[in-house]
Amino acid sequence: MTSPRSDGITVGMGEGHAEPDKAALDRLRARLQSYMLKKGLRSTAQRRLIVDTFFGGPSHRTIEELLGEVRAQDRGIGYATVYRTLKLLAESGVASERRFGDGLSRYELADDDSAHHDHLICVACGKIVEFEEPRIETLQDEVASRHGFEITSHKHEMYGRCPECLAQGRS
Ligand SMILES: [Zn+2]
Ligand SMILES: [Zn+2]
Predict the structure, then answer these.
(1) Fewer CB under 10 Å: which end of the chain, C or N?
(2) Ligand that comes closest to the CA of residue 11
(3) Which of 115, 158, 98, 97 is nearest to 19 (CA)?
(4) Looking at domain 19-112, which CATH architecture does it have?
(5) Would you call 27 helix, strand, or coil by DSSP?
(6) C-alpha closest to that of 128 among 137, 112, 117, 138
(7) What residues does the ion ligand 2 have nearby, CB within 5 Å?
(8) How far is the CA of 12 from the centre of ligand 2 (A)?
(9) Rounded distance between C-alpha atoms, residue 84 and residue 47, angstroms
């Protein structure tokens, strides 16, 4: 059983990718605050608007998409400000930058310490599905340790065609 969300991400019940809960969002916000404090960065009104819009919206947005959303609220915000703020979010470990083969950088909230998700990407329509699969995580650890590695991070991306594109014969 799956339910499409407005942001084009399909969340299957068996896949268990829940919306980040409030406690996780608060931890990410606290992480950003302490990072900015450490770096001596001031929180400007524009930066706050960008950060709030990023926290509130759908996952995997490009800089252009986020720019469109913040400019709907403040026409004075430029590309460079959004770009720098997203870089700041990534540096502080609050956002993760992803590239799914279309040459665009997409940003999502970083996984909380306890959670990790991977992605299925439709090569026909660009839909991105998030999933969590403990068996894959366990297998990856086993493969790594067989080679004497301890994993610090990994990306698992699967490319293919989504059910809708398969049904319509899109390629
Ligand atoms: Zn598709
Ligand atoms: Zn994701």
Answers:
(1) N
(2) 2
(3) 115
(4) Orthogonal Bundle (1.10)
(5) helix
(6) 117
(7) 108, 130
(8) 14
(9) 9
Whose structure tokens read 């929180």? 43
Split at pLDDT 50, 70, 90, the class of 20 is: low
- The encoded tokens of residue 157 equal 């991306």
Model confidence over 101-149: pLDDT tens digits? 888 999 999 987 767 899 999 999 999 999 999 999 999 999 999 999 9
Q: Of the bound ligands, which one is closest to the alpha carbon of residue 156?
A: 2
For residue 120, which ligand has an atom nearest its CA? Answer: 2
Ranges of CATH 1.10.10.10 domains, the chain: 19-112
pLDDT in tens, 32-48: 999 999 999 988 999 99
Question: Which homologous superfamily does the CATH classification assign to the domain defined by 1-10+115-171?
Answer: Ferric-uptake regulator, C-terminal dimerisarion domain (3.30.1490.190)
Report the half-sphere exposure of 155 (CA within 13 A, side-chain side): 9
| Cα(21) to centroid(ligand 1), Å | 28
Q: What CA–CA distance (Å, rounded) separates 150 from 14? A: 28
Alpha carbon distance 88, 54 (integer Å): 12
Q: What are the backbone dihedrals phi and psi of residue 30, each rounded to the nearest 5 degrees, phi first?
A: -65, -40
Tokens at residue 27, please?
């931890």
